[in-house]
């Protein structure tokens, strides 16, 4: 088996919850049931798992197979029938034990690249059925591996200062026959409390891909301060990844520094098997202290980093805060009123203490209904949604309210959010910090149809692709009708795809598609085309001959 990713790898806003099994950059490999059981759930979405199958097994586990192209014929037929009955491509439904039982090694689907997938592969998970907690699949599957993991960087943090207010201080390291050590004989630490973080990765014998590490252990002067193992994680707690890494550094560089300590707002269970003083070492006196960091993969291959530290005293300059800075603490809620903006932080929002800067910026958009409010920094993570209320700069009609969005922007992206109205304020719940502004959006999305043109012959066409673009945000609803009958399109991002099948037989046809954005603006487009009977039959025979030859 060759992997593209392992269990517990650091990903954006989550841990990787299974194994990514490589499929040689190809799609449509047969996927088989890992063990006896029954298909208990089907999930289809434009993002996330794409097309996925859940199999419940009698031994108390559930396996998941994701990013699939199609299901095996009987199941594919059942799902398509339900999609057309619901007139809904996205699906998330459960099945009874007697509907689709499976045996070990039985064909269940074909691999693909659907959902939030950046290349063809099979995502595979094992969960405890009762708790829905994900188990490291390496406990069940042997992946040949005698390659030791590597440490590329080690950093220290001054824990007398808030972690959001500092950059990592890196220690230069070098390889030795025994592992790693620091370039300097003794590292001078100008603080009385210090924690450490590492950038590390792993490989296996069957792939050149870099994986996450399975285990890390921190010792100072022979005493274990922290140790984590990636054996069990649940999706309910996966967002705590942002408390286990230097989030700001990741957002700025794309690299993950994994903390060997716990922030006070990190309540992730199963993660730290050993933890003393939250993994923070109190540097006292003039003594030299020995630090040992050991990392390991699931197969027990390990590497050790050793270095020495001592405390030095320097004059520190205090951060000066302005009147528009607000002090927030983990595990405590906070209400903030700033001009026409109201912000509420629930108690489980932050991982560390924060001085939050809130500012009112000049408007820049001709459709603005409020100032743009800068709320904190995109480089500070939130664990749960905060509530933001913005008051428009004028009285709005009901029509204008229906066309109002709150636009979120940061240095890299923007997103349109649909608010609800609480008296005279527009309200959203959101889990990122950045810039927020009320905008009036009356511009409908743009529709582009690929693969066919009006009055064209589409006999040699395999797919119709419709692309939607919206000036302020993403598409919310899509609908297509072929000859007055609902037609199913699959979706990835803002592309909607229909593969021509028996629902579009030879002859003349008219297709109408309509798209609605988050503000309720609708665009529609209608074109006519025809399929030639002989050309369609010829293509069908060619396809059949290819399948026979392949068999």
Number of domains: 4
What Rg, in angstroms, do the CA atoms define?
28 Å
Give the percentage of residues in beta strands: over 45%
The amount of helix comes to under 10%
Report low-confidence residues grouped into runs of 5 or more: none
What structural category arises from helix and sheet content? mainly beta
Count of separate DSSP helical elements: 4
List the helices and strands and how they pair.
Blueprint: E1 3-5, E2 10-11, E3 14-15, E4 19-22, E5 30-32, E6 37-44, E7 51-56, E8 61-71, H1 73-86, E9 91-94, E10 101-102, E11 107-111, E12 121-128, E13 133-135, E14 150-158, E15 169-171, E16 173-176, E17 179-182, E18 187-189, E19 193-204, E20 207-211, E21 215-220, E22 223-229, E23 232-234, H2 247-253, E24 258-259, E25 272-275, E26 281-282, E27 289-296, E28 302-311, E29 325-328, E30 334-338, E31 341-345, E32 354-361, E33 372-375, E34 386-390, H3 398-402, E35 404-409, E36 414-417, E37 420-422, E38 425-430, E39 434-440, E40 446-450, E41 456-457, E42 463-469, E43 475-482, E44 485-486, E45 490-492, E46 495-499, E47 507-517, E48 522-531, H4 533-550
Parallel strand pairs: 17-28, 18-28, 41-48
Antiparallel strand pairs: 1-4, 2-3, 4-12, 5-11, 6-7, 6-9, 6-10, 7-8, 8-11, 8-12, 12-13, 13-23, 14-15, 14-19, 16-17, 19-20, 19-24, 19-26, 21-22, 21-27, 22-25, 27-28, 29-32, 30-31, 31-34, 32-33, 33-39, 34-38, 35-36, 35-39, 37-38, 40-42, 42-46, 43-44, 43-47, 45-46, 47-48
